[in-house]
Amino acid sequence: MNPFDPFPPAASTMAPQVDHLFIALLAMCGLVAVTITVVIVVFVVRYRRGSRADRSNPPTGAFWLEVGWAGTPLAVFFVVFIWSTSIFSRFYRPPADSTQIYVMAKQWMWRIQHANGRREINQLHVPLGYPVKLIMSSQDVIHSFYVPAFRIKQDVLPGRFTYLWFQPTQLGRFTFACAQFCGIQHYAMGGQVIVMRPADYERWLAAGSEQPGLVARGAALFRQSGCSGCHEPGSSVHAPDLHALYGQPVHLADGSTVLADDNYLLDCMLEPANQRVLGYAPVMPSFKGQLTQDDLDALITFIKSGQAP
Amino acid sequence: MNAAVPADTPASGTPAVPAEVLHPRSYLHEGSTLRSWLTTLDHKRIALLYMISITLFFFIGGCAAGLIRLQLMTPNGQLVDDRTYTELFTAHGIIMVWFFLIPSIPATLGNFLLPLMIGAKEVAFPRLNLTSWYIYTVGGVIVVLTLLSGGVDTGWTFYTPLSTLFSNTRVILAATAVFVVGFSTILTGLNFIVTVHRLRAPGMTWFRLPLFVWAQYTTSAIMVLATPVLAMTLILMVFERITRIGIFDPSLGGDPLLFQHLFWFYSHPAVYIMVVPAMGVASEIIPCFARKSVFGYRAMAYAMIGIGVIGFLVWGHHMFVSGQSSFASDVFSILSFVVAVPSAIKVFNWTATLYKGSIELSAPMLYALGFVGLFMIGGLSGLFLAATALDVDLHATYFVIAHFHYIMVGGTVMAYLGGLHFWWPKIVGRMYPERWARIAAWLIFIGFNLTFYPQFLLGLAGMPRRYHHYAPQFQLLNELSSTGAGVLALGYLLPLVYLIWAMRRGARAPDNPWGATGLEWRTSSPPPKENFETIPRVTGGPYDYHPSGQRA
User: Fold this and answer.
1) Rounded to an integer, what distance in angstroms lies between the CA atom of residue B485 and that of residue B458?
2) Spatial CB neighbours of A298, under 8 Å, sequence gap ≥ 6
3) Do the Cβ atoms of B250 and A158 come within 8 Å?
4) pLDDT of the residue at A273
5) Nearest to B161 among A1, A141, A178 (CB)
6) Tens digit of pLDDT for each residue in A166-192?
7) d(CA A206, CA B184)
8) Cα–Cα distance measured from residue A76 to residue A72, given in angstroms and rounded to the nearest whole number
9) What is the average pLDDT across B302-328?
10) Is residue A49 scored above 60 in pLDDT?
């Protein structure tokens, strides 16, 4: 790379929106900073001790001036806030047809798992022009997935999922880094997003998946781990139906209602006592320590696929 | 006429006590033994004890910063290994925040000046004041022990579960040091609040208080309200680390974001503990050297109170990408914009104070104007971080490092040094060498900008903070920054040398070398143990300056 141009390109649909806001705010702040500096310098020169400048009736305050220079910034800030918030809300609205990829962070590496089971370390292959949603969790401490060229960042937490989505607009390799201090080799926890043409991506994806896909693995685990013993339709145990569960509201015994998202499913498997579903006995055991994060990801993908019973 | 006259003279504008009147014995001559210093109850001597302590920690923290900048001269620097590097930036943060910045202006200049400025003989609780310093010293000894026994590798923020389950370093010892020093902060705050309420001289109404006193008062309230939350948070963290009972660690049933909420509930107001006193210093120096009453006195006082109150409601802007709800982020975003308004008001008012003034660019004024400029850049860069969509990109990069160093080093340290120069004649009774002081002010201003301006660009380029090695394209900016750090170090060493030199060799200071109006200039330099021979009576506002000639 050119040492005199360290700045990353704007390589996602989000990046230009963020950059426009940045440039507008920079122009505004630059104007204020230069104006104040010039005014201070002019005053210092003009009213230097001994100069002949007019000093009659020096003001010691002016109520409407105070109101004006409090109100004007407040109004401008409000506009910036609305602008920023409208962009920010898009970070939380991934398109429904996003390609879903699991990201698992641990000291000090990133493990990526694609829907068909293909895994990679510290590399993330994605198709150009398609939205990608990362479903991220950590095995140990808090990490943060940061792609400067896409202007996106999200902390990755242990014990729950966080999400990040983007839609790349340029082919090529883009650095990603861990942005949350996660221990002494924090700096070494990086990698590259590799944006490929969609056809190349499909070929790449198909080439490396000796492993079964996540749905197939989830289905197998569903039996091996004993989930099916209770959640099969013919079971003698009265357990919630998982078939069309994902994305639906669930009424809990404590009177609250939650949305059955990834975090809800994760909690149900790890801390079922906290998620008592209305009308069901709290008989589900915790699978904490029995299932790896990979297993959990596979089971959740299986339930999301609608193929669970 | 001047705002204050001795109570036994008619309020008709008698100037300072004539120089030929025999000066009472100065507080510095009330005993010279070590014992007399370590058992003193005089707020002025305690201020000097603090000054020596925090100067020591400033240079320890500064050495850590120097090593960090040397390591970052090259992308794959091998000066220190990654564990040492981590321990260095953790030590730098802990020492600079809790052992230098937070006590800096309040415990030294505040301790020295608060009773003088309100016309009191002492702070409300002199024994508590000395106790505060001893508690600080105990905390300081523990933090030094932490460093000597191997250091800490969590960063000054102690984020969980890294600090509770994934660190094998001296986390408990470091947390104990911070816990202990917090009590010194709380007690100083308590002492100042009671002092301002109970010990004002006759006629010293609330709106005749110098803005420095308003600043100390606001800061004290934040200290008393915020610091206990830090203490509780650290107890919970240590408790989880020892007992493995889940509070913050999700594998034990805890919530890691709870720690961040508690930590920033303290640590964001703590930013205002660090910078509001600096605003107070600038508000004394600028009117004096512009020979003009501060513009919009009441707006300035209300602005500080506004900062103190709203400052408690913005902590979540440290957590926009943490996983907190987007709604919470939106609320914290708008509140963070709102808290910038009082700061903007203050910058405008300092600028307007210069209008039609009679300005002398003496060393304290250079520092004070430097403070205004750098604080302005720091504040404006904060707007980028208050905007959620921009913070997503900039969070945890060098942009944030640059932003808060502009506030805390460009702001607070500049103002602290300006205040030291401004009041040095009062504190030690001797003048500092003006030429050297101006050279140092310029050196610090240039060195500071050279160090931290490139860090804004590094953040925009995408360099994350707390990186031991970095990508080669960041090298040029890092080299500039490290070079600036060298200039800055030189700039900081100069005042250390000449201010100490001035204590014995400087020209004798008159009672009021700057023609300033505060009550502290109505007594001798240095003041006697009891501050005033007669308690002054106050008949007017604090900034009775007149640009078009001598004082009336």
Assistant:
1) 16
2) A214, A215, A217, A218, A221
3) yes
4) 80
5) A141
6) 999 999 999 999 999 999 999 999 999
7) 64
8) 6
9) 96
10) yes
